Amino acid sequence: xxxxxxxxxxxxxxxxxxxxxxxxxxxxxxxxxxxxxxxxxxxxxxxxxxxxxxxxxxxxxxxxxxxxxxxxxxxxxxxxxxxxxxxxxxxxxxxxxxxxxxxxxxxxxxxxxxxxxxxxxxxxxxxxxxxxxxxxxxxxxxxxxxxxxxxxxxxxxxxxxxxxxxxxxxxxxxxxxxxxxxxxxxxxxxxxxxxxxxxxxxxxxxxxxxxxxxxxxxxxxxxxxxxxxxxxxxxxxxxxxxxxxxxxxxxxxxxxxxxxxxxxxxxxxxxxxxxxxxxxxxxxxxxxxxxxxxxxxxxxxxxxxxxxxxxxxxxxxxxxxxxxxx
Length: 326
Fold this sequence. Notes:
This protein has helices at about 10-20, 40-50, 60-70, 90-105, 110-115, 135-155, 175-180, 195-210, 275, 295-305; strands spanning about 25, 35, 115-120, 120-125, 165-170, 185-190, 220-225, 255-260, 315. The chain is of the alpha/beta class. The strands form three sheets. It has a five-stranded parallel sheet, sandwiched between helices. Strand 6, helix 8 (about 195-210) and strand 7 (about 220-225) form a beta-alpha-beta unit.
C-alpha cells in the first residue's frame, strides 16, 4: 500500500487491486473466518485518499471516483490538486497506514476518516466505538421530519407552539442534530448510556449549531443517562420525586420521542460482519439479555408516558425480523 511518487489515478487503481486480493485476519475472534478482499474496495480507496489529500469533505470522494472512472477528465479535481500530482512521502505513509487498518481488520471508513455526511449534516465527527450512522437511520429521520411537518402544518400562518424532542440512545447525535437543523425552534435532548457518545454528540452540536454561545436553555443537549434511569420516579419507593426533592428532577413534556435502539438478540451477535462486530460498541447493537433482543425497546416503551406531554408519540427503528416497528 505504499505508493510514493504515484499519480492519483495510479494510486487508486493499485490500491483497489490490493484491496480486492487482501486476505484479512478477522482479529482475535477465532469464530470468524478470514476475509478475502475488502468490501467496496473502490469506495474505500477513494474515501481514504480524499482524506489524505485533504480534499473538500463535501465532494472530495466523488471527485476521485469521477477521476477513476474518467481518467482524461480533470476539470473538477484540478481546482484542488493537479491531476498529474504525485504522492509525497508523507502522503504515501499516511495512506498506507489507513489502508492497512482498513484491510487487516476491516475497520469502518467512518472511524478512519473520523467524519461522515448524514442526512442534512456535512462532515459530522465520528470515532470508535460509537455506532456508525446507517442509511436506514436517515430514513428514520426523514420519516420523523415528514411527520412533524404535517403536524406543524396544521397551525398554518399562526405561531408554532414550542417543540421538544427526545433522542434516546443519541450516539454521535446525528438524529437529534438533523432534526435541530430542520426545525430551528425545536429544543432537543439526547440521552445515552455511553459517556463517549455524550461527549461526541456534544462536540457535534457545537460544530453544527454553535451551542457554545447558547442561552441557559440550549437547542440541543446530551445527558449521560440510560433510558431505564431517565425518570423522576424514586427507585426505592416507586413514587414520583416531589418538586422540592434534594436531587435534581428531569424536565420531560416531550412531544416526540425518537430512538434507534439496540435490538439484536444475543444469539445473533456472532453472525455480524467483522467490520461491525470487531469495532462498534456491542452495547449499541445487542438489545439485552432476553432471547428476542428487545429489552431496551421495552424500557423505552415503559417510560413513554412519563416522558411525553400527553399521548405518547414514538418513532423508532427496530428490525424485529418483520420489518420496522414503531
